[in-house]
Amino acid sequence: MVGTMNKLGNISTAWLTIILVVIMLIILIFSSFIGVVEIPFETVLRIWGNQLFGIGDISDIRPATVAIVWQLYAPRAIMGVLVGASLALVGVVMQAMVQNPLADPYILGISSGASLGATFAILMGATILAGSFMSGWGVEIFAFIGAILSSVFVFTLSSFGGRMTATKLVLSGVIISSICSAFSNLIVYLVPDAAGIRSITFWLMGSLSVQGFESVWMVGLPLLICLIFFSTQLRSLNAMMLGDDTATTLGVNLSSLRRIYIVLTSLLIAFVVCKCGVIGFVGLITPHVGRALVGTNHWKLVPVSILLGAIFMLVADIVARSFTAAEIPIGIITAICGAPVFAYIMIKKSYSFGGSN
Length: 357
Known about the structure:
The chain has 357 residues and is an all-alpha fold. Helix content is 71%, strand content 0%. It contains 15 helices and no strands.
């Protein structure tokens, strides 16, 4: 894909970033008036302006309409931005960390591990956690544990019998993902809770349906922490893309940094999964589109990929809500878009990945 798209050399990264921010904000507002209840676009703009900046008078708008826009539609749209940005950031970091263009939290089984942990906490962990200090954070804690363990198993399994390769890494991810999915299905099968099973089934396919801004903060805060940290790691990420030997020569402590990266990315994925379910391929698609636009230098790639991830997730959510009366799980939409890209990357031999432009 990178080889077939021209880099926007005549447009600076700053201007491209501004353009992407504007596009994201337009789609964000557009997304927040699409739903079961039809609300005029002008009304949505007035509510956003009043709630965010105190601009204008909305006393003539029915309180029920304000509640629908600000308590249902707006949190969902903002969650789309945060989830897309989170998955894109994790994809960029993982691809640099293992020097593998196929690295992605979904493909490598990290999302499935987090999903297994969250499924256990939701359907079986309530009794175990009752009365403990973890009772209010059980889903998040178990999702984080699942993500961490699946990451460790994938990287350990892919390192057996010699040096880690792209093929071994992907196959290891498929193995761990299959095992986690099997155990998740087993838990769902063993628990005789029809309502819980329906909820988990829909959740396992991904959804941005949230209950207010509390869930938004639960994803936004870990994302902010990761953004702050990884903004200090751009030089190290560039060095990792050059290969382990070169990175070590440049003074990068690969072993230590990889452990830190795995913990932080697993934490972020855990919160995304426990709030929105399993949403795949976003971390695979957006970094490659970003490299097609600005190259492989992470000083440019990280902000562009994050914005692309947010835009892609917003558009996918709009599509998921627009084609049928019943909402389509957003994970289905991202898989339809991502699977062909995954196949393209595997088949194309001339794909350029390493190096920093």
